[in-house]
Amino acid sequence: MNSSSSVNNSADPSSKKPMLWINPGRTAAALPGNSWAGKQIGEKDIHDANSRFLRFSSVLRTLFPELDKSNGIIESPLFRVPTLQSELGLPMNCGMLFIKADHTLPIAGSIKARGGIHEVLEFAEHIGLENGLITSTDPSNLISPTGKQLLSQYRVAVGSTGNLGLSIGVIASALGFETTVHMSADAKEWKKKRLRDRGVNVVEHEGDYAAAVAAGRAEAEKDAYCHFVDDESSFSLFSGYSAAALTLKKQLAEQAITIDADHPLFVYVPCGVGGAPGGIAFGLAHVFGPNVHCFFAEPTASACFLVAMMDRSGSNPSVYDRGLDNRTEADGLAVPQASECAVAVMRPVLSGVFTVEDETLFKHVHTAAITENLRIEPSAAAAFDGPHWLACSAQGSEYLAHHKLLPYLANSIHVIWTTGGLFVPDMEYDKFFERGARSNVNSQA
């Protein structure tokens, strides 16, 4: 049964003003769609991805010594941020604010370490099994001399604005694949350099994210030995992100936090093409059911998921179709058109989408640093306004009232997902910080 929201969604993304849009299609059961490009998907896929990460933990630990402390597991901490909560204007009687710190994820330094690494591991595992080199329970021979020689015959390619390219480039080159990353014009120079330093072939394109993906896909289609990681339609990427929900459940339990009808969970995730936040939300919905409420955050100029969710024509419009220019400092979110697959899966479950101006991203970078010593990049700050939108805006209040959540808001948990920043060079980060400091001073004057 569809419990269509009564919230007034007359706001227009083409105004380029920050807004909160509530999804009228969220159903009472709040279960995500169960089809991905014709493939049936469900909770089993979340556990399958998690099992793959566990199987490969010894391989990853060998390839990346920084994973010694975590026994080869790629994961980020969850911690409470009361000072940041106060600065962001979320009243203490509206629940507790936490950060899920994917900006600290090892190997890739961003949320893309989840999906990107998972897909390359799945591809390598397929090759190893097909050639009788490994078993379904032990992939360790992939990093033997024989395994390296086998994988070196194959190629991996991806189109990216930056962080996904870093993730794919690092893990694929470490396993021995010949690797090519097609990067759009808005990708940061330091990300290109980091890849080239690892022997990755970086191809630069003058166009945007969509153009880089299209070019990479076209080139890979000509090569039977090349696997293209398609951020717009890859379920392997999507399921890799979804496994994070299992860890979040464990981390909340370790802090004696219960999520149920009386203790709702609100999660805010930056959104580009939609695969990463969609995978996270897919996993959370299966783990916590209707007691989790996920909101995506996008730059005002690149609100592709918002544009797609608001559209009912089935045409999957781009931001250009709505008068937006896709120009944003949040390079990881500079995407003109959302993943049709992710949009379809999110329609029955996503709570809403809110947008943020670039200058606000820098303000939040500065605020995160001075309140909680968080070192993030601008795109990772996109979700910071989410709790205030929910608790302090008319749209948020209507959402809470419609879903009968107002009596339980004081018991709620708010989680902001920070998505990147670990490997940002000091010189680049200092620019982010200083710009944010100036903006905060000017806004207080």
Describe this structure in words.
- This protein is of the alpha/beta class and 445 residues long.
- The chain folds into two domains: 13-45 and 75-109 and 238-444, Rossmann fold, CATH 3.40.50.1100; 112-236, Rossmann fold, CATH 3.40.50.1100.
- Helices cover 41% and strands 14% of the residues.
- Strands 1-12-11-10-13-5-4 form a seven-stranded mixed β-sheet, sandwiched between helices.
- The chain is globular, with a radius of gyration of 21 Å.
- Calculate the mean pLDDT score and round it: 93
Radius of gyration (CA) equals 21 Å
The number of distinct helices, counting runs of at least 4 residues, comes to: 17
Specify the CATH class of the largest domain.
Alpha Beta
Helix content: 40-55%
Work out the strand percent.
5-15%
Secondary-structure arrangement, i.e. CATH architecture of the largest domain: 3-Layer(aba) Sandwich
The biggest sheet, with number of strands, parallel, antiparallel or mixed sense and barrel status, is: 7 strands, mixed
Distance between the termini: 50 Å
Shape by Cα distribution: globular
CATH topology of the largest domain: Rossmann fold
Uncertain ranges: 1-8
Structural class: alpha/beta
Order of helices and strands: EEEHHEHEHHEHEHEHEHHEHEHHEHHHEH
Number of distinct beta strands: 13
Strand order of the largest sheet: 1-12-11-10-13-5-4
Count of folded domains: 2
